[in-house]
Design goal:
By secondary structure, the protein is an all-alpha fold. The chain is 76% helix and 0% strand.
């Protein structure tokens, strides 16, 4: 049987006795198959952990809300909600397992590796009353209002626009899921800027990863690993996972 089919049946718990024997034989004799199995297993665990964490956070919010109601109603609704949420979680994990393809894996890898870049260039203090376009943009950025941040960044006159503005505008697009716009800005930084070039290689690699452009993602990671210190170890680890 095809190796990917064996992996699918293993993770969906549908291996026959004959398939299980073949699976175990490959696992002990085929190094490439074992590496793929370990990779898939790690991703499945990441999926489950992510979904479990999201469910726990939702349950916490729900618990606070229903605490204001009567104990009898709380108990009945809470139990029903937990049952429904558990079913949703199990179905979600089952669906992700069923769709156990490289596209899904790449999305998980993106989620695991993506983290919003912090504002390290413009200090915002509570007592600061200065009202500037740059301050407004970074305030919006720190508050997670990325649409407003982009609008404010765009208002800054080109002659007054600092080099780092392009990077944070790209970050804003990335946080909005607008990968196409983010890609173009990261490429512009790499070609023309002196600041945040290594960082741009990393985030550009992630945008390629998210859109399943694996060859392009690996190219950016290889450049980052060779020429820059930012996320060097993470780039090496991600390259191993993509090989």
């Amino acid at each position: 049987m095809d190796k990917e089919q064996l992996l699918y049946h293993y993770f969906s718990k549908t291996l026959t006795a004959e398939q299980e024997e073949e699976f175990n034989a490959l696992l002990s004799s085929d190094t490439e198959f074992k590496e793929q199995f370990n990779f898939e297993q790690s991703l499945q665990q990441a999926i489950q952990n992510k979904k479990s964490t999201e469910l726990k956070e939702t349950l916490k919010s729900f618990e606070k809300e229903v605490a204001l109601k009567s104990k009898r109603i709380v108990k009945r609704n809470y139990q029903k909600w937990i049952m429904a949420a558990s079913i949703v979680l199990l179905v979600g994990i089952g669906w992700l397992t069923y769709k156990n393809s490289f596209a899904i894996n790449y999305e998980v890898l993106y989620d695991v590796n993506f983290q919003q870049y912090p504002n390290t260039v413009f200090a915002i203090t509570r007592g600061d009353t200065t009202n500037s376009l740059e301050r407004n943009a970074f305030t919006a950025y720190e508050l997670g209002d990325f649409e407003k941040a982009i609008l404010e960044f765009d208002k800054i006159d080109s002659k007054d626009r600092k080099e780092y503005v392009t990077f944070y505008k790209a970050q804003s697009y990335l946080n909005l899921g607008k990968n196409k716009e983010a890609k173009e800005l990261f490429k512009k930084i790499i070609n023309k800027n002196t600041l945040f070039v290594g960082e741009s290689h990393w985030y550009l690699a992630l945008t390629y990863l998210h859109s399943n452009e694996i060859k392009a993602a690996k190219k950016e990671l290889q450049i980052l690993r060779k020429d820059y210190t930012y996320k060097k170890e993470s780039a090496l680890e991600l390259l191993k996972q993509l090989d």
